[in-house]
Amino acid sequence: MIEAYTHTLLMIDLSRTAVETIPVPAPYVREFIGGKGVGAKLLHDRLPPGTDPLSPENMLMFMTGPLTATMAPAMRGCVVTKSPLTHTFLDSYFGGSFSPEIKYAGYDGIIITGRAERPVYIWIDDHRVEIRDAGHIWGKDALDSNEAIKRELSDDTIKIAGIGQAGENLVSFALICCEYNRQAGRGGAGAVMGSKNLKAVAVRGSNPVGVSDPQRFTAACKKAFKELEASPDVEALRDAGTASAVEFANETGLLPHKNYRNGTFDKASKLADKGQRKHLWMGSNACMGCPIRCSKIGAVRTGKFKGIVTDIVEYESAGLMGSNLDISDVRAVAHLVKLCDRFGMDSMSTGTVIGFAMEACERGILPSPKDVDLKFGNVAAAEHLIRAIAQRKEGLGALLAKGVRRAAEEIGNAAEDFAMHTKGLESPAWGPRGVSGMGLAYMTTDRGGCHQRGFPLAYELGGEWEDKKLDPLSTEHKAQLVASLQNHSAGTDTLVKCDFGSFGISTETYAEMLSAAVGREITARDILETGERIWSLTRMFNIAQGLDTSQDTLPKRFIKEPLPDGPAKGHRITKDDMATMLQEYYQVRGWDTKGIPTEETLARLNLTQS
Amino acid sequence: MACSFDLFGGYNPRLARLSILNKNEKLYHLPVVCNQCEQAYCLTVCPAKAIFRKEDGIVHIDQDRCIGCGLCARYCPIDMILMDPENKKAYKCEMCQGQPLCVEACPTGALELVTPVKTSSSPENRSNPEAKFAPDDRETN
């Protein structure tokens, strides 16, 4: 019978050039369902504390979920590994067609360990797995190497995940490109891949993926499609992707400007859907099987950067590579983001790192590179730094390639005061000073300061959550709100869902699709409980890897400097605010005052074995 | 996905009887479906006379007659004939008895079922090189 799970993991040890398949342990599936959960469990159980993320021992996993590759709308895959940027658990999600292809080839996940002696790529053609020489591709960017591999294998329908020069050069925030315009973007998974001398993983799968109860599954999918159609958020995404968030963030004072000094940017609309529609977009793009089609595609037709094909400049890139650097020409921002895509590096972290360097230079504690005026608003300076970082050129490129936390440590001179990160992960494009719950989310996310494991600001600005009145500036109810959203996120990230799908699809409908697909009754409550279990498991992993409560914090700028503009002008998240929310949050989670899960909590979540 | 599920009881777009052609970093994506060609090479080259056209114009493959040689797939200009990985026989889009599942599943309306308007150049008004493979002939062969 064709099933939703393949029950098989493909294990590849590049040091020994050994390939084997192992069954997914049944308890893992029962307790953790798929994607994030099973990945977290494998990492927790198999990776010794203190493992260097760039050592051969680190595990690089491409995980799917039980609904990946089925008719269930808006599904993705995830990379799970230990991050070289944060030294914590890392899960990084990607849409497109790569993750379904893994399932079609017959695997629930691919786990790569070791380090090849010389550059290689992995070619997976159903059950045939080959480790091939990549010497002639090494040094090419993410898109050129993709094309070269397809030509070499004489099939342009093959799906490829690969790295650019940034991954090869171990840039701490290098990404994995999952073609096209889809990336496992955050946390430096590309550097882990580069450290293994692994240029790409190419997959072709010819097997069908089935479901346990087709009739029930089809009905559940229909319901999910209906819920998506009924959602105004989905409608907005279909119309303008995430670009319309630029104006929203600007109006609410959450848009980073000049390395997060300000929360508004007077030229925001140029970067938003209005500007992008005019200068870039030609059509829409969808990931496989997704009716949302949030992605817009087009080209820069005029001006200095004409000729490039560009995906939508999604909100985070518009915010961090545009507004945050005081750049308002959306064509220039598209160009900078495209450079990052080609080099294979996270445009979010890159934007934050460049903003940091510009401020440091303006303050006189970092010398400007020769022939470049390193200051806000200078597109040429941003481009110079992108090239220098990706290739670790000059002292400055090598320094910034370590990420903003380590760069600030090395520069000294109170550079930490404006290094925007939590646990080493550069901050996303939502300044939290006007929304304290968002601050708590950054403080407590398992992979470092991230906006995607709970997005409380939508409720905070909306004014209510589960019949509770919310004040965006107050700390009240924020701990419950954040923990609840994180549980939902982790529980559904095991399926593996896309965040935008969950704007429309209810947890009950996810549960219905899941139950029908896998032939086991799983309720919405089970999904949320699985999320809670995963959240405490990744916490245990992080603690074992050396994390402590002192890192559950915010960048100093958000704590010390009141927001100078916008509706929340004058507000900051004080140390007292942080301590109040954090202790309440630990309590909600059943963790002790130091943020360590208690024995009772581990027993309640069936994690005692862990 | 709807198409592959109908055929194999599982999802995989590679098995479907239509595809999406992506070009230039997905700037372009074009749905590719069987044209039910007027001069259908698949039908012309089939040595087993397994491929025939019904009165509604749709080109079908008789699975009992197909010998799995793959010539039809080789000469289809748009790769719309596939080989069943299990029984090794050829299959193609036969329009789901007039109610295509792909059209039903398409969320955007990009796929629509349309009826061609007959013009003076319609097949019946010209000498048709495929006429010898018309269903009635096939039955008597």
Major sheet summary line of chain A: 6 strands, mixed
CATH secondary-structure class of the largest domain in chain A: Alpha Beta
Share of β-strand residues of chain A: 5-15%
Order of H and E elements of chain B: HEEHEEHEEHH
How is the topology of this model organized?
The complex is a heterodimer of chains A (610) and B (141).
Chain A: E1 8-13, E2 18-23, H1 26-32, H2 35-46, E3 60-63, E4 77-82, E5 89-94, H3 98-104, E6 109-113, E7 120-125, E8 128-133, H4 142-152, E9 159-162, H5 165-168, E10 176-177, E11 183-184, H6 189-195, E12 198-204, H7 214-230, H8 232-240, H9 245-252, H10 268-271, H11 273-279, E13 281-285, E14 295-299, E15 309-311, H12 315-322, H13 330-343, H14 347-362, H15 379-390, H16 394-400, H17 404-411, E16 421-422, E17 425-426, H18 436-444, H19 457-462, E18 464-465, E19 468-469, H20 478-492, H21 507-518, H22 524-544, H23 556-560, H24 575-589, H25 599-604
Parallel strand pairs in A: 1-6, 7-12
Antiparallel strand pairs in A: 1-2, 3-4, 3-6, 4-5, 7-8, 9-12, 10-11, 13-14, 14-15, 16-17, 18-19
Chain B: H1 2-8, E1 19-23, E2 28-32, H2 41-45, E3 51-53, E4 59-61, H3 71-75, E5 81-83, E6 90-92, H4 101-105, H5 135-140
Antiparallel strand pairs in B: 1-2, 3-4, 5-6
